[in-house]
Write a structure and sequence with these properties.
globular, 8 helices, Aminoglycoside 3'-phosphotransferase, Chain: A, domain 2, alpha+beta
Length: 252
């Protein structure tokens, strides 16, 4: 009898990395060996559920699929009960209170470097006609509130809702740790609730401590401004309903 082969599915792919699914195994291919090493290290240190690492032979990392489903994706409908969103908030708080990892992550970029990158990106967005000047100017003003001193936490660095898996009201795992490291906790909370502002209260209730909502809103603007050109250049559509450009428009 012929052996039945699992179908190979492309989960996401662009010039820097790709993720494939073969049955219950995910294969992450990354051109940057340091990112794979950082991901393996972060998963070993994180105090929240993460996928089982099956093997790692750079540039490929093989991990097992997680049970459950994600809470949704940017630009798509969100799923899960308020309790599920609160459970995610509690898991994020557990991560943020863990001992610091040795590396700086995406959420740990210096204020000086981030401000310079943001200003250059805003100038490019307007000069190349990607976004209207008033939209960029307003969101650049809002984004300034995120550029303040912060206390380092263990951050995921790319905590999109598509990276958090839920079964019922329980978090079963968090994936994609390549940007993890020391950083600003509110960056994670902002990334997780980007485009799903209606669930922010549930997430904060689970997180269990007061946070500066103005800074979270500032990160929504900042993250979206930095993402638009990169997404376009890598074949994604930030103008799709509910995505980054709609997030920017909602701040007007």
């Amino acid at each position: 009898m012929d052996e039945v082969m699992d179908e190979v599915k492309v989960v996401v792919a662009h010039g820097e990395r790709a993720t494939l699914r073969v049955g219950d195994v995910f294969l992450k291919v990354d051109s940057d060996r340091a990112r794979i090493e950082a991901e393996v290290e972060a998963m070993s240190l994180a105090p929240v559920p993460t996928p089982e690492i099956l093997w790692c032979k750079p540039p490929v990392l093989a991990i097992a699929a997680l049970p459950g489903t994600t809470l949704g994706r940017l630009g798509g409908p969100s799923t899960g009960s308020p309790a599920a969103w609160s459970a995610a908030g509690a898991a994020i708080r557990t991560l943020h209170e863990a001992p610091l990892p040795p590396r700086a992550g995406r959420a740990g970029r210096s204020i000086v470097a981030l401000r310079a990158q943001l200003d250059a990106e805003c100038e490019s967005l307007v000069a190349n006609g990607m976004l209207p000047a008033d939209l960029v100017t307003r969101n650049r003003q809002i984004a300034e509130a995120a550029l303040r001193p912060w206390t380092a936490s263990f951050t995921h660095g790319d905590l999109q809702i598509a990276h958090v898996f839920i079964d019922g009201d329980e978090v079963t795992g968090v994936i994609d740790w390549s940007e993890a490291g020391q950083g600003d906790a509110l960056y994670d909370l902002a990334t997780f609730t980007l485009g799903h502002e209606e669930h922010l209260d549930d997430v904060i209730a689970g997180y269990g401590t007061d946070v500066d909502l103005g800074v979270i809103q500032a990160w929504w603007s900042l993250r979206s401004l930095l993402a638009v050109r990169w997404l376009i250049e890598h074949g994604f559509d930030p103008f799709a309903p509910g995505c980054e450009v709609d997030v920017l428009r909602s701040r007007m």
